[in-house]
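Here is one record:
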Amino acid sequence: MSSGKENRKIMTENSNILIQSLYLIASFNDDLMEIIGLSLYVSLSALTLAALIGFPLGSMLATKKFFGSTLLNVIINAFMGLPPVVVGLFVYMLLSRNGPLGVLGLLYSSEAMIIAQTILIFPILAALSRQVIEEMNREYGEFFNSLRLGATQRIKTLLWESRISLLTVLLAGFGRAIAEVGAVMIVGGNIEHSTRTMTTSIQMEIGKGNLELAMALGIILLIISLSINMLMQFIKSHYLKIQEGYRDE
């Protein structure tokens, strides 16, 4: 009997936590919105920087063979599996007071978190975009040669023609960035109203026993993750329909 009462008590407590977390979301709780806003700002900024570096590099590796290109490919592929805490440690040492960039005073700031996330997702964008553009280049390479396109024009054309596939690459990079915890915890410090993201807040709030806020953030993170995957599937299916329509014509 006592065990049944305990189970009902646990279920009631869990239900109350879920209800309170949903209330926090529905009421647009200030702390919750601040954390979500900072997380999106950091991840989207890092994604933009990583794309500006990764896409051109991926395009160059896909269309040109040059001295060191094979080694660069190997390094980029290896860096796709970089442990986040290693990246966090590297950026921490770079931005610490005694580090080469310590004079900038960026440690424990949103900028430091952006740098760490950019380093983490840049290899993913570079490697995946290289694969996408390499396939496109194989398909249209002879046509481009017949038009005598220069390297820059060829890359621009390939990037534009691969835009749908590259969008899914961006979504994959964003999903990796928004779920990051190790690196941003090290370089951001998880400071309230300054560097507290969804993932670091969940970890901290669970330790404090504030399960309502942790659950609310977890639900938002899950919704973002599901939305990204649904959008990727929609883009892929829509792209396949367009391709089938071209073939029918």
About this structure: The chain has a mean pLDDT of 86.
